[in-house]
Amino acid sequence: MTPLAIEPLVLPQSTESPDAGGFLAAAGLFNAHQREIWGNDDFCETPQAQLARLQSTPTRRRQLLVARSGSGQEILGVAQLNFPLTDNLHTGTVNVVVDARSRRRGIGAALCAAAGELASADGRRTLIAETEHPLDGGEERAGGGPASFIPQDAAASFASACGFSLELVERISRLDLPVDGPGEGFPGSAAGAGYELVFWQDACPDALVDAYAQLRQKMSTDAPLGGLDLLPEVWDVPRVREAEGKARGMGYDVLVCAVRHTASGELAGHTVLEVARSNPAVAYQDDTLVLHRHRGNRLGMMMKAGNLRRLGQLFPEVQRVYTWNAEENRYMLAINLQLGFRAIGYSGEWQKELSLG
Ligand SMILES: CC(C)(COP(=O)(O)OP(=O)(O)OC[C@H]1O[C@@H](n2cnc3c(N)ncnc32)[C@H](O)[C@@H]1OP(=O)(O)O)[C@@H](O)C(=O)NCCC(=O)NCCS
C-alpha cells in the first residue's frame, strides 16, 4: 500500500482563499458520502456552510484530520472531530469518510485511530460516531430490538471493526409537502385551552431567551440516549445566541414554535425547523420538547403542526422535511406518523471507550 500521512487540516479563512484546496477536497468527500447514501443532495452542504459549521466556538472545539497519499497531496479520507468544552468533557465525536476509490486499504482505520489518540490526549474517555443506513425494504431484521434496524453494511462493519458498540438507533423520516395544499391539513394545529403558541424566526426574543435556554438544556436529558455515556448539557443565554449565530453563518433560516402556559406564562415546550438557503426545497426538524409537567395535553402535536403550517406560509418552496427520532421514542414517532412522516432509513449511534493517553 502507498504510505499514508494523517495530519490536521487548518481551516482556510474563506472558501476563496488560495490555501482552501485541502478544505474544499474534504468538504467534497463529505458531500459525496451523503450523495452515495441517499442518492440525492438533500443532506449536502455548500463548502461555505461546512466551513461555518466547522468553526470552533466557546462550547465546541472542532478539528479535521485528513489522510493524504504519501506520494502526493491528494486527500483520500477525512475525519471530523468535535469536543464539547462546557459539559460532557469526557466525550468527543468523530465522523470518518474515505474516498470511494480508496476504501479497504486501512485508511478509515488509520483516521479512526488518529482521532482516538487525539481524543484521549485531550482527556476524553468516550468517542461517539454515527452511521447512516437508507431503508432497504423497511422490514425490521431478525432478532427484534432497535439494533435489528441496522444492516451489517460497510459503515456498521467498520464501526465494529474499530471497536465501537451500537448504543442507540434513530429512525430517519421524511414528510413530503404540501400536505393537502401548502401548509394546510395538519391535525390539531391550534393551541389547546390554557396554552398559546409563540413563534419566532432566527433570534429568540430577549424576554423568552432564559426560558428557551432551559428548554434546550432539557432536550439533552429528555430525548432517549440509549446506552450513550452522555451527561446533561449546560445551556445558557450565550449558548442560545451562539447556536443562532452558527445557523446564521451557515445560511440557515430557523423557525421556532414554542408553547406558553397562559396562566403561569411559563414556556412549556418548543420545536425547531431549519431551512438551508442554498437548498430551499428541504427543511430539517431539530429539537421538539414538552416539559414533563405539561405532557399529555397534545402540545407536541400542536407545536409541530403549527410550525409546519408556518413553514408552508413562509417557505412555500420547501418540498421535503426530514426528522430523526430514537426508535424507542414511541410518542414522538406516533406524532410524526400522524403528521405524514414516513421512514426512509436509520442512523446508528456508536460508542467506544478510549484508554486515556
Ligand atoms: C466506513 C469507511 C470510513 C471505511 O473506510 P476504509 O478506509 O474502507 O476502512 P478500512 O480499510 O480501514 O477498514 C477497516 C475495517 O473495517 C471493516 N470494513 C470496512 N469496510 C468494510 C466493508 N465494505 N465490508 C465489511 N467490512 C468492512 C473491515 O473489518 C476492515 O478491516 P479489513 O479490511 O482488514 O477486513 C468507508 O467505507 C466510508 O467512507 N464510508 C462512508 C462513510 C461512513 O459510513 N463512515 C462511517 C462513520 S463511523
Written description of the protein model:
The chain folds into two domains: 4-174, Aminopeptidase (3-Layer(aba) Sandwich), CATH 3.40.630; 177-343, Aminopeptidase, CATH 3.40.630. The protein has helices at 21-38, 47-54, 107-121, 154-161, 209-222, 237-249, 299-314, 330-339, and strands spanning 4-9, 60-69, 75-84, 91-98, 126-134, 165-176, 195-201, 252-261, 267-276, 282-290, 320-326, 342-353. Helices cover 29% and strands 31% of the residues. It is α+β, with helices and mostly antiparallel strands. Strand 4 (91-98), helix 3 and strand 5 form a beta-alpha-beta unit. The chain is built from eight helices and twelve strands. It has a twelve-stranded mixed β-sheet, with helices on both faces. The chain binds coenzyme A. Coenzyme A is lined by residues 33, 95-98, 103-109, 129, 131, 154-155, 157-159, 161.
Keywords:
alpha+beta, Aminopeptidase, 2 domains, 8 helices, binds coenzyme A, GNAT family N-acetyltransferase, acyltransferase activity, transferring groups other than amino-acyl groups, GNAT_dom
SS content category: alpha+beta
Q: Which fold name corresponds to the CATH topology of the largest domain? A: Aminopeptidase
Q: Give the CATH class of the largest domain.
A: Alpha Beta
Largest sheet: 12 strands, mixed
Low-confidence stretches: none
- Spatial order of the strands forming the largest sheet: 1-2-3-4-5-12-6-11-10-9-8-7
Distance between the termini: 29 Å
